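for ur thesis appendix - GPP34 family phosphoprotein. copy paste whatever u need, i formatted it the way the template wanted (i think)
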Amino acid sequence: MLADDFFRLAHDDTSGELRVHAQAAGWGLAAALLGELLYAGRIRITDSLVHVAHPAVPPADAVAHGIFDQIVAERTRHTVRTWLTFLSDDGYEQVATRLVREGHARRKASRFLFVTWSTTYVPVDMKTAAWPVVRLAMGLRQRTPLDEHDVFLAGLAEATGLDEYLIRDADHRDWARGYLRHLLSTVAAPAAELLAHTRAAVGNALVAHHT
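the 3d part is after this line
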């Protein structure tokens, strides 16, 4: 699943610690969840609005099904940014719970200053957790074709600041970054619009965080 791969991309494959700011991860996961529905043909994006595709057949996955039902239930068509904002609130927990349920992660609770509890989702299998980074990094370094799932995933990495993890070991970083730009130029308009809104949301959130 697209959101599962982005979750893995956004976390250390051993400790489960976030590689980016939590808000950036939240926006990225929200976009990945919408991306799952978009690439499955369950929704359409036109003029920055999210539409239900017809016939309205819900996806089999429980998380995707729940989000699809929420979109269907809305009488008003909402903007991409509205849905990103909505899903960024609990999308992280939804994806994390899906990974735990499917045996890919385990919850680890930590206590700080005897008061605050923090939950980390530790990968069960390091190779599986590392695979999205390895796969995308290899593709960018070698400039090999990527399928639309991975191109969109690379776009999410670029939108959230995770692209540095994909090119940091490249012999020629400029080449790898240039190839990433080329790949993103091939993204279909609806997905490109979703990435653009994600990039803007992350940028605004990080500016607000530092002011």
